[in-house]
Amino acid sequence: MATKPHNTIAYGFLAPALAVMTLCGVIPMAFVAYYSVHDTFAGNNFIWVGPAWFQQVLTSPEFYAALARSLGFSALVLSIEVPLGIYIALRMPTKGILSSLYIVLMAIPLLTPHIVVGYIWQVLTLPEVGLLTAAVAGLGFALDMTDPLVVWSVLALMDTWHWTSFVVLLCFAGLRAIPDDYYRAAAIDGASGWATFRYIQLPKLRFVLLLAVLLRFMDSFIIYTEAYVVTRGGPGVSTTFLSHELVQTATVQFDLGEGGAISVIYFLIVLAVSWAFFTLIMPKDPEQTKADETKDARP
Which domains does the chain have, with CATH numbers? Predict the structure, then answer.
């Protein structure tokens, strides 16, 4: 069957994006994969070593410790940002000037560059002069940035300030897309606010929440700039995430082979998680989807 003209035009519009992705993603990743199976001297002579670097990385306790810290940080911030984002989205006004104002305010943290966020929170936590330090002191506590628990709390608070708005805006858009007929039916049946949320709003937000969790996991799992500016990986190695371990190995120690192996493993972990969420997000058979929606809509 001949290809329709509009399909050809669509591929033409898509070509610039594919070219940019190839130049910025595929080609650099190919070089990283090449480094991961070679050893190099002075950055010029490459010697084939096969999977030796992968074996070294996968038997390294430091790698698993950094991986555990990265996964732990992602789990921590997701457990805070997703429920908080849903709550704020439910409380936001849906009409009028206040709705537009809230949306603009929510977008401000998202527009702040990562490095700026890091330096803002570094200043906030400065001893004696930092506003966060003074606020905590006013409550009768000390903001001890040499305590790993305190540092993790600060990083979680920083990430929550920076990215909760993303979850809020996604959930707000999802809530606005729910037809009013569902709410009218719930009101007629005398459904409580919790029942409306449980049987109408939450099911309709399922795909939105999966997308939010996926994107936030990917971003929090590869966090580098903000955390490094605030803590430099300390105290000790308590906030040395996998991204820090990768940069330390590849650029400071200049172990390109080991750094390449860590990068490939890092990439495969993110790819596997993304694929798992993609299979959940992809719609089912249309008839089954309609039946599920009808079932979810019943309070």
Answer: 37-296 (1.10.3720.10)
